Amino acid sequence: MLNGSESHRRGVVKVLSKKNSSEQKWALFFIFVTAFLIVPPSLKARPPQATSDNQPSDFFRLLTGEWKGMAVKTPVGSLEYNIDFAITDDNQLYGVADTGASSHHWRFFQDEGKLQLKFLSTFRGNSTPVLLVQNKSDNNQFVFQHKNPKYLQVWINFSNQLVTIKIILREQPHVRIELTKNE
Q1: Which helix (H) or strand (E) holds 59?
Q2: Domain enclosing residue 9, as ranges
Q3: Are 92 and 151 members of one domain?
Q4: 65-73 and 103-111: which strand pairing?
Q5: Taking the chain, what is the end-to-end CA distance rounded to the nearest angstrom?
């Protein structure tokens, strides 16, 4: 006894065997196109996904380690800016910089396939972190933005052993940090 798909396939073969070769080619073409169109989306090829939550991303590898430098532009002038980024037990990248004027807490993590940044500056007694989501990136630049991109963006650029971080607040340059890897 034949199941439905086996019976259908044999019927198609029987019909094709009665047609000339030109008609056979068109019939096969039609069958393949129809099959392609009705393949469930879950079985179709998908673009590569972001790094899984269980593995550090390329970004994590680039930023992990001890960095020394300066916040060359801030609301209170130039400040020494040293930070050590480390991967935590829950696969987040965390670092804190104590500038004297405030502490800056940087927490990078993956959520729903997107790289995110939870940033806290304790300047003027602030204790509320801000969440930013990666908006775009290329090989050496990562841009994170607030849900209102006109409010806050963080641009992180990698160049050899140098990292430049630009913080744009209310569409104006707010802070610029230049760091070199301490080896």
Answers
A1: helix 58-63
A2: 4-43
A3: yes
A4: unpaired
A5: 73
DSSP 101-143: S-EEEEEEEEETTEEEEEEEE-GGG----EEEEEEEE-SSEEE
The answer to the question of residue 75 being in a domain is yes
- Residue pLDDT, tens place only, 72-124: 998 888 999 999 999 999 999 999 999 988 999 999 999 988 999 999 999 89
pLDDT for 44 beyond 70: no
Q: Is residue 64 scored above 90 in pLDDT? A: yes
| Within a domain: 167 | yes
How would you write 5-26 as a 3-class SS string?
HHHHHHHHHHHHHCCCHHHHHH
Do 73 and 16 sit in the same domain of this protein? Answer: no
Residue pair 134/143 in contact by the 8 Å Cβ criterion: yes
Q: Find, among 105, 112, 151, the residue nearest to 128 by Cα.
A: 105
Indicate the pTM of the whole model: 0.68
User: What are the φ and ψ backbone dihedral angles of 45, each rounded to 5 degrees?
Assistant: -60, 140
With respect to residue 53, please indicate whether it lies within any of the assigned structural domains. no
Going by pLDDT thresholds of 50, 70 and 90, the confidence category of residue 29 is: very low
- Helix (H) or strand (E) segment spanning residue 37: helix 21-37
